[in-house]
Write a structure and sequence with these properties.
Blueprint: H1 11-26, H2 54-87
Length: 103
Amino acid sequence: MPESTGLYASWEEAIAALEFEALEALDPEPPATAAAHVAWTPPTHLGPLPLHLREQAERVLAEQRQSVRNLEEMHRETGRHLTALRSVPRRSTGQPVYLDTAG
């Protein structure tokens, strides 16, 4: 995770933080204690990615891309739901909808 100064101690820590956030984003039902999203600022002091971390970094990237696909699908589904809700006619006459036959 990032230190309080906002800098990463190493590539391993930077990738671990990204991996944690990517996995957290894939959770369809995050815990109630989940922190609010904070804008990510790429670290600038790490230098080139070490070759031995390439596979891990590519895996994190794949997880992030999956998160984007999931969000896009949720956006489309929400749009479909809104369209369905908007298609329900509204009653503006103020007349009762139900007739009380028992009372």
